[in-house]
């Protein structure tokens, strides 16, 4: 599952559904490559006073993506050989022929090369997406959402836990890369019904052992990461976890994906807020200083592969967690494999390789979805828009085989 050689005889013979590519006209993947990525290049180009070298590189990348073929990284790039090994079969061919997962990941690596983020020089280490991230944190929507935390203080513990889990889930809509060509957010209000809801199983897993370590693999910063930090605070404060390990990207990736610097920015935003938000920010800051919340990263989080191909050190680390929670659409695609699976394919079957119990919290913003029951699938709107519009979401859980049964009442206090 998840190999990039979608057209190989081995894959055809395996009976697996095809890997998603950008070839099909009108498809979501093609729209991302043909419209969103060029729009992002233009936005990055205008966000900084880049010099002629960076501007020429951005313009060349724009032309290459739309009209040319995939080119390798420059000879001076430190990871040129790594990427050559990762995708030799894609170089010299149109971007639209490559697997969607690989093409997206390589596009962001090429964008970082174009602006000088990796290479030694004045722009090294300057996050090209930072202006977009900071603008969101300063926005009025974040302020309103922080004030709303005061309304949860008096709720019964179970209701508060449910509200915080849903806030973390629906916060995944706040994706700065999930924009139309003009920069507008894709319209549509969230459907109040989830297409899959294993939240009781999630809380039941967390009720089994108060000394458990929970791993959270983050997705977006800003309006998603703040609810994630609030949920983490709840897990630590109410005995659902003795320790949380928050995994973030090692560098800028997919526009708004969270890095360590973004965690710090979100924590400062929380800590400056009045009321309950500020108290939560103080507790999370303290949890980091004592090691109860540990922020980590791994190069594999920026690799163009599904989690089935994770390296042994990451597999061993996640295997020590009582539960790993994966946030967001990209993590979901990497978890189950970026293929055109039938929507009723069992989630547990596709995640059986994962080293331990795993939960996915994800707003649907791409074609991949599994684990739906036939009745739910039948009741969804006709067409495929529900898969990609960000108006639907899911919570799916697979418990570690041989682990505690999930029949115990969920502990949400």
Automatic annotation (TrEMBL):
Pfam families: ARMT1-like_dom (PF01937). The keyword Protein transport does not apply. It comes from the Bacteria. Residues 33-373 form the Damage-control phosphatase ARMT1-like metal-binding domain. Keywords: Hydrolase, Manganese, Metal-binding. InterPro entries: ARMT-1-like_metal-bd_sf, ARMT1, ARMT1-like_metal-bd. It catalyses: beta-D-fructose 1-phosphate + H2O = D-fructose + phosphate; beta-D-fructose 6-phosphate = dihydroxyacetone + D-glyceraldehyde 3-phosphate. Belongs to the damage-control phosphatase family. Sugar phosphate phosphatase III subfamily. This is Damage-control phosphatase ARMT1 family protein. It comes from Streptomyces atroolivaceus.
């Amino acid at each position: 599952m998840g190999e990039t050689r979608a057209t190989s005889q081995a894959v055809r013979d395996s009976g697996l559904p095809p890997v998603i590519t950008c070839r099909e006209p009108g498809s979501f993947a093609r729209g991302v490559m043909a419209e969103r990525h060029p729009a992002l290049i233009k936005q990055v180009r205008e966000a900084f006073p880049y010099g002629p070298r960076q501007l020429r590189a951005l313009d060349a990348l724009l032309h290459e993506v739309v009209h040319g073929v995939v080119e390798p990284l420059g000879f001076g790039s430190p990871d040129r050989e790594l990427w050559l090994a990762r995708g030799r079969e894609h170089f010299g061919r149109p971007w639209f022929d490559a697997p969607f997962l690989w093409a997206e990941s390589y596009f962001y690596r090429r964008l970082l090369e174009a602006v000088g983020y990796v290479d030694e020089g004045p722009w090294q280490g300057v996050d090209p997406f930072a202006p977009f991230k900071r603008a969101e944190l300063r926005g009025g929507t974040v302020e309103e959402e922080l004030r709303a935390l005061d309304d949860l203080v008096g709720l019964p513990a179970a209701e508060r836990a449910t509200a915080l889990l849903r806030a973390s889930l629906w916060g995944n809509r706040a994706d700065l890369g999930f924009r139309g060509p003009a920069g507008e957010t894709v319209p549509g209000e969230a459907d109040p019904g989830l297409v899959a809801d294993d939240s009781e199983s999630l809380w039941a897993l967390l009720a089994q052992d108060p000394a458990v370590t929970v791993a959270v693999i983050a997705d977006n910063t800003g309006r998603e990461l703040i609810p994630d930090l609030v949920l983490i605070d709840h897990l630590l404060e109410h005995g659902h976890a003795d320790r949380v390990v928050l995994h973030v990207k090692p560098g800028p990736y997919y526009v708004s994906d969270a890095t360590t610097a973004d965690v710090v920015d979100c924590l400062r935003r929380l800590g400056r807020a009045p009321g309950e938000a500020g108290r939560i920010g103080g507790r999370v800051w303290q949890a980091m200083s004592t090691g109860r919340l540990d922020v980590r990263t791994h190069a594999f989080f920026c690799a163009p592969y599904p989690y089935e191909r994770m390296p042994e050190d990451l597999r061993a680390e996640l295997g020590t967690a009582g539960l790993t929670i994966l946030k967001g659409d990209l993590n979901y695609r990497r978890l189950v494999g970026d293929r055109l699976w039938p929507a009723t394919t069992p989630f547990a079957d596709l995640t059986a390789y994962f080293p331990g119990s795993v939960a996915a919290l994800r707003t649907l913003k791409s074609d991949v979805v599994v684990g739906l029951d036939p009745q739910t699938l039948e009741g969804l709107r006709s067409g495929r828009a529900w898969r990609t519009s960000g108006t639907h979401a899911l919570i799916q859980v697979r418990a570690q085989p041989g682990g505690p049964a999930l029949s115990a009442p969920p502990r949400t206090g």
